């Protein structure tokens, strides 16, 4: 037999495999529906412990109080609601904050411009959104550098192309080549045009929150925005116990317009909160109670999320640490408190302190993601791309993490006990001493039976070696390039796009650049 005939024979026998490989590598912009858990939440605290934390949190609010700084209107609102005001200190009588929080909805829908991408936040659901806020980016080719608007656009496109990611996020990286007072316009425009998934608004100044509302009114229609939630945005509390006028001003804009806010303490244990788990949980709960209550003062029924960003501190270097047991205990406990309060819960993410997408990053990220799934998180910001304690958004880690989010979807399904799941027909067909590779049950289920990574290498050593002995970062680099090369912009009414671009251009032209 000639060499050509041998090669032809190999191609013929490999046709089915080649077709399956082509199917796996075909361009896809499929987005999985947000996770609906069919597994129990993991709870670390009993009712007595939760009661104690709630009582102590009420003591903090009533006796120590919280500061609402540079915001006299907020002080007046609190006074009218029944709080005691002493300068900028707000002391909230026992029971008042919880009573105000009672109008907050247990679930809400955030609408996307593509209705198929809309998400329901709360209940047993888990919505996954990408990294938020890093001033630096990293990739294998360019290394660590300040982020640009071009980087931001690439991340939004990658997020749109990522099957397991439900949300486009907000400040996926901080584009430092655009003026501070104008970059929110470009970021919002990018989310609106290059993705059709839900997104977040700007919170860096109240007027920028208002710009977010006005741009959404162009995208969705003014009446639709008035009656529906189209943004879920991050409002950080200056822990310990301080609510600044910038974040509260943005919260006021969003709450007034029925847009959702994540009320989230920013906790580094030992620096912004006590070193103990119970002490941190108590402070977190007090801060969240005050923040959610204030949102309900602005507009009863405004959608809110109980947020918790928690890490500990390395007592030798002062650097934050991630994926630790202490952070897990706090995240699990905060989930229990959120469910008792009756509001959606935000926490966890692809947290790590590593400088590279390496083994440290993988271990810490895996711990953090599983913690988020099992703690009952409903909205997970930073679900992919986080590196170096949140200072860096990594392109390689973005696609590695986004791929691993598929394991959360699969795990959350729980155990299938249907007739097909029991597989008794397969066991009967194969019997003692056989194998299941060719049985009818395997043939009917093999495509969906096991979750499979789109990044990891499962090839035999010889094939892996022949293809360049690529490690996971190298495989991720190739995947980033392929996803960006095959990106296809989701359709948008040209008139709406033109109006959005005109709004951004007019706003930017109306003010000088400011980088402060």
UniProtKB/TrEMBL annotation:
Domain of life, per lineage: Bacteria
Documented EC number(s): 2.1.1.-
Keywords noted in UniProt: Methyltransferase, Transferase
Cross-referenced InterPro entries: MttB-like_sf (IPR038601), MTTB_MeTrfase (IPR010426)
Biological processes per GO annotation: methanogenesis; methylation
Keyword Secreted: no
The keyword Cytoplasm is annotated on this UniProt entry: no
GO molecular function, one term: methyltransferase activity
Chain positions covered by the region annotation Disordered: 1-22
Entry similarity comment: Belongs to the trimethylamine methyltransferase family.
Protein name (Swiss-Prot/TrEMBL): Methyltransferase
